[in-house]
Design goal:
Blueprint lengths: L1 H5 L9 E5 L3 E3 L1 H13 L3 E9 L10 E2 L4 H8 L2 H4 L20 E2 L2 E2 L3 E5 H7 L11 H11 L3 E12 L13 H20 L5 H23 L2
Helix pairs in contact: 7-8
Pfam families: Glyco_tranf_2_3 (PF13641)
Keywords: Transferase
GO molecular function: transferase activity
């Protein structure tokens, strides 16, 4: 995903760059309104719109918090599903904020990721260390660190036919696709969060990631 999108770097000539998944349906008004918002808010480095699944449900991955140890724990333990409106437990998907409310977020989903060319020139494009998943989190991190705001703007929307772009990987790539998400967790933690936490927290986080990897390996053994 990262390497494929970065090919555009050699061809983009405009002021704005939109990373848009191939399994999305977008209205002309969505692009027009989001660019207008960027033009009127120069402190915004990136933004997304409301992302809707074919079922009509909201795609919660459209807006996320950075997966710090606490936020990752509440997410993978299921606490954010048990207390979906709690500011303490539901921070990963911003469950305590209505999906119809405009607000600042940490992370944008790569399905619709609008940013400025000058921002990408400043912080870099997608990190190709990530094969699949995680590259949008890492880019969001660098944009925020550079002092820009990242905005979720639900007044316009797209439809996301989720996972259609990576459906049925060829047999030799099945392991790589299955392990991509959990491998990205480890890459991101070591790159961005390792230095921010004491060693015992880091050991616990890496142990948890290791357990997730074992679970994915067992999944590969299933027919």
């Amino acid at each position: 995903f990262a390497a494929g999108n970065n090919i555009a770097k050699n061809f983009c000539r405009g002021e704005y760059v939109l990373f848009l998944n191939s399994d999305t349906l977008i209205k002309e008004s969505t692009l027009r309104e989001t660019i207008k918002y960027m033009e009127q808010n120069l402190g915004v480095g990136a933004m997304t719109c409301k992302i809707i699944l074919p079922s009509g449900k909201f795609d919660r991955d459209a807006r996320r918090s950075f997966p710090t140890p606490w936020i990752a724990f509440t997410h993978f333990s299921g606490l954010d599903r048990i207390f979906p409106k709690s500011k303490l437990f539901a921070r990963y998907w911003y469950g305590y904020i209505s999906p119809n409310s405009e607000h600042e977020v940490d992370v944008l989903e790569g399905a619709f990721f609008l940013t400025r060319r000058k921002v990408l020139d400043e912080v870099g494009w997608f990190d190709e260390t990530y094969f699949l998943d995680g590259e949008d989190i890492d880019l969001s991190w660098r944009i925020k660190e550079a002092g820009y705001k990242i905005i979720y703007y639900p007044k316009v929307s797209i439809i996301h036919i989720k996972k259609a772009s990576k459906k049925k990987p060829v047999k030799e790539n099945k392991k790589r696709f299955t392990m991509a998400g959990v491998n990205s967790m480890e890459i991101f933690y070591k790159k961005r969060l390792w230095q921010k936490y004491p060693i015992f927290i880091n050991v616990l986080v890496l142990a948890a990631i290791k357990m997730l990897k074992i679970g994915r390996y067992f999944k590969l053994l299933l027919p």
